[in-house]
């Protein structure tokens, strides 16, 4: 059975998505409740898997990761063994921030964050040395216009 989320839960989740590091009292005040009921709801949302890991969002450019590539991958391989090898290669590479399997002409899209084009090429060379890929197209993001992990609650 799916976990039921009411309007108060949605308000709490919206506040946590804004900034989960704020004191519980501040979050409770923002949702029009008190500390203990909000703490209990957050605990239940965590137990239900609605809230996952709480992490710090780090500025990639401030740390020298100035290049963001979107990598479109087509493969002629669709066997389970190839997929396992490919997924393992992606999971072992910290440069891959996101990986999605797609419907349509492109099989996979990756979001890869690296310091520069040379670092992307090293990533690319390492990847194709581990798994056979039919076609790769890399698109350099010139400007990040919007980026969020918040869901529209």
TrEMBL record:
One of its GO terms (cellular component) is cytosol. Gene3D superfamilies: 3.30.70.920, Winged helix-like DNA-binding domain superfamily/Winged helix DNA-binding domain. Keywords: DNA-binding, Transcription, Transcription regulation. Residues 5-66 form the HTH asnC-type domain. GO terms for biological process: regulation of DNA-templated transcription; response to amino acid. Transmembrane segments: none annotated. One of its GO terms (molecular function) is sequence-specific DNA binding. The keyword DNA repair does not apply. It comes from the Bacteria. CDD domains: HTH_ARSR. This is Lrp/AsnC family transcriptional regulator. It comes from Pseudoroseicyclus tamaricis.
């Amino acid at each position: 059975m799916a976990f039921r989320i009411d309007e108060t839960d949605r308000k709490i989740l919206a506040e946590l998505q804004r900034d989960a590091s704020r004191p519980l009292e501040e979050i409770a005040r923002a949702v029009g409740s008190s500390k203990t009921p909000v703490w209990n709801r957050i605990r239940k949302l965590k137990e239900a898997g609605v809230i996952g890991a709480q992490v710090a969002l780090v500025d990639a450019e401030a740390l020298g990761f100035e290049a963001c590539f979107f990598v479109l991958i087509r493969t002629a391989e669709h066997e389970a063994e190839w997929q396992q090898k490919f997924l393992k290669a992606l999971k072992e590479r910290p440069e891959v921030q996101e990986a999605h399997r797609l419907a349509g002409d492109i099989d996979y899209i990756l979001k890869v964050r690296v310091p520069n084009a040379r670092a992307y090429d090293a990533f690319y060379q390492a990847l194709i040395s581990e798994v056979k890929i039919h076609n790769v197209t890399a698109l350099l993001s010139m400007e990040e216009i919007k980026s969020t992990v918040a869901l529209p609650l």
